[in-house]
Structures are given as C-alpha cells and as structure tokens.
Amino acid sequence: MSTPASLVQHDRAAAALARVRETAEGVFEALREVRDAAVACVLPAGGTRRPVVADLAALRPLLWARLRGGALPAHLPALIAGIGFIAAPGLLADAPWYLEWWQENPSGDPVQLLRNMDPASSAFYDYTHWDWYAGPFSGAERTICGPYVDYLCTDEYSLTLSVPVPAGGSFAGVAAADVFVRRFEAAVLPALREIPGPAFLVNAEGRVVASNTASWVAGSVYRGGPRDGDHAVRRVGDLPLSLVTTTAGRAG
Amino acid sequence: MNMARLAVFSPVDSTGRVDAVVRRLADAIAVGLLADGEQLPSEAELAGRLGVSTVTLREALMALRQQGMVETRRGRGGGSFVRLPAQLDPLARLRAFAADELRDFGDHYAAIAGTAARLAAERSLPSDVAPLWRTLDEMDAVAAAPETAGSGEACARLRRLDGRFHIEVAAASQSARLTQEEIRLQADIGPLLWLPHEGLSGHDETAAQHRAIAGAVERGDGEQARAVAERHVLDATRHLIELRLRLRE
C-alpha cells in the first residue's frame, strides 16, 4: 500500500536515478568518442600496417578537450581528471605496453603520464589485471571500476570508467577515464539529499560510491542479503550501479 | 607584531618545497612506482604537475642526482631518468639508525600496517583480495625458481613484490591517506626491513605471515588481520634491531 511519504520517496529516488545516470553517461559519451577516434588510430593506412605509438598522438586534441569537460552537458560539473587509450599488450609495433594517458593539471596544460610501461622493470605495470582493463577485455560494454585508491596515478580515491576498443575484428585496448569519488559525489549528492531517509549508490560488487548518510559513506560495503528487508535496491538504467534506499519507517 | 605569527603566514620556504619534491620522487623510486630506467617528464611538465616552480624542481632533481636516484643525460634522447639505487650498501644505511630509532620506525609502521589491514578486512571485496593472492603466488614462484633462487635479481624482484603486496593491502583499506603513508614508510625502511631475510632464508616464514594477512582480509576478520599485520612488521623490526646491534661502528 502506498502512503504519501513512500510516493515522495519513489519520485525522488527516480530523480536521483536520472541524475546518476546522466552523470555517468556523460563520461561514457566522452569514452565512446575516444573509442571511435582510437579505432581510426590503430588501423593506420586502412589497417595495412601495424600501428605505432606515434599514431596515437592524433587522439590528443580530443583527450585534452574532454579533460576540460568538453562533451559533458553544461549543467554538469567537469568530472574527468584523466582520460586516454590503453593499448592491448602487443598491439603496437614499437611498444609492447603503452598508455596514451593524459591528466588534468590545475596549474596549466594537461600532462601525460608515464610513457614507458614495462612490467619487466617494475612490479606494478601489468595493467591487464585491473578491472578497468579486464572488464572491457571480457566483453563488458561499460565498466565502472572502483571506488579504489589509485596509488599508480593520482593517489586519489577514484572511479575508472572504461569501454572496449574493438578494431579490425579483435580487441585493441580500452578507452578509460578517471573520476575522483569526491567529484562524482558532488555531482549526485544534491539528488541523493532530496530522498527522505538513508540512500546510497553502490557499484556492482556492493561498494558504496556516494551516499546521503554517514552510516554508508563512500568506501564502505553494502552486502545486502535477505535480512535487509527494509532496503529497496534499484538499478541505474543498465549501468553497473544501484541505488539503495530505506523503505521502512525512517522517512523524514 | 608577534614574530612567530609573522613566520606562520610567510611563504613556505623554497627548501621545504624542494624537500617535499625530493621526498615524493624518492619514495616513488624506492618503492618501484617509478621504474628503473624510466624517463621522467620534462622539467616544465614535472614542475607543473607537482605545482612547484621550475627552479624548485631543478634543485630537487639535483638532490636526487646526488643521491644517485636520477640520472640526467644531455643532447638527443636526453632527459632525466630514474636510477634504482641498488648499489647503496644497506648495512651502511642501517648503521645510520640507532636501535631506538628502528624501534620507533617499527612502532609507526605497525600502527599504519595494522590499521590498514583491519580496515581492509572490514571493507574488502573479492576484487580487492584477488590481487593479494596473485602477488603472493608470484613471490612463491620467484622464491622457488631453482635457476634464480638466491640471486640478487631474485631478491630485488621479491622485494618489489613484497612492497606491492603491502601497498595492495593498504589500498584495500579504501584509505588514500593510509596507502600514501604505507608507501612512504616502505620507502623509508622497506629495503632495510627486508635485510634479515636476504638470501631467501626467511622466505617461508615471511610468506606464511603474508598468507595469514591475506587470509584474514579475505575472511573479513579485522582483528586477526590487524594482529597478524602488526606482528609481521614487529618481527621484521626485531630482526633488524638484532642485526643493527651486532654491527660494529
């Protein structure tokens, strides 16, 4: 039976879902552009020769523009802190491991990250194990990795969103973007705050991404389960995110 | 005007910034986040990224060159390159610490590693635990490989993987600050903590403790994870202090 309070909650949850979806889709839209541009880069001369590192330089104007928030709807804050193309190992003729990766720089032009990535010289560089690579590699159309502590690039608590880059019938790598959790939270919190009672957003594994309550702060784990009868879980479109709200007697 | 208050609001002096830049890069090099031989971005780019002036950056690079952690080549294909200071005599470094300083390092490290492990156990998901087991399996494989066992190369690789394991545990805590502190402590004392086990003699014991930490994190047993992680650091510190006390001046 619907009470007015639960109707209010339902409407506001729907608005929050729309806000979260719009925020994430804005980033995925930028990634689809990067993917399309990367496909052209990794099939040089109509795919008649193997691509090299220099072929990826053509991506730069697009990456720089998206770092500044380019394609995102104007009412959304600029979210993307780092963006680029990560080559599948062995794709490029002149570098077995390579990222064409650019990061924002508060004091000037975007900067490129770590150009030479060779797992033989460091224990950290085999990127194929990270979810942002493994997800698209195993066929996921849209991957949201994290929140996690990004100790390789930024030292920030981050999300990495990624999509596969298929080229010439095979997997060429991934297009990915880093979004700091604090910025994602700032983008969706106004909508979460409108929901009466505790409400929080979790990733596919149950890690809290953003929340309107200190009881479920970003980074904590929602394990759900049958005993959580007073929680309603709504999927955010077909994204790997869900909104959890409290259904019983805590409105207001 | 009170002089102490004036000092508070005066610009952070450039030595402080140089030290901060030296420390940041030296930590990353010591732990292996920047790899041996890797080219650093141009001075202008690096200065921009770190938010310091080019002059400050140059001073920092000079200090790192003096410490043998960065090499600068001129001309075509030139630039600044990371150098792993493998040739530094660890016993000479150890001699620079008194036993009570080592004990203090151990106390600090145990606090960080213990809390990180407890939070990791409380908050970790399967995707946080998988990298831990992968790293430990890689370590076992390096230690067991008959062709390289005991070689300097195998030890260096084990040390890097050991560092990666502890950073992965810290990252599983979901705390960026604890992870940064773990990296800093490893840079400060990691190569020394490894010393008593040089030659792989202690690998089994260390590996058993690593597996106990990963197991407790996987089970979600926060208190056990904290206890084992603290024990791991304190045992290594005790070995190190024994070693230090036997060193003649």
TrEMBL record, chain A:
Gene3D superfamilies: PAS domain. It comes from Microbispora siamensis. This is Cache domain-containing protein.
UniProtKB/TrEMBL annotation, chain B:
Transmembrane segments: none annotated. InterPro entries: GntR_C, TF_FadR/GntR_C, Tscrpt_reg_HTH_GntR, WH-like_DNA-bd_sf, WH_DNA-bd_sf. Coiled coil: none annotated. Signal peptide: none annotated. Pfam families: FCD (PF07729), GntR (PF00392). Keywords: DNA-binding, Transcription, Transcription regulation. It comes from the Bacteria. Residues 15-85 form the HTH gntR-type domain. This is GntR family transcriptional regulator. It comes from Microbispora siamensis.
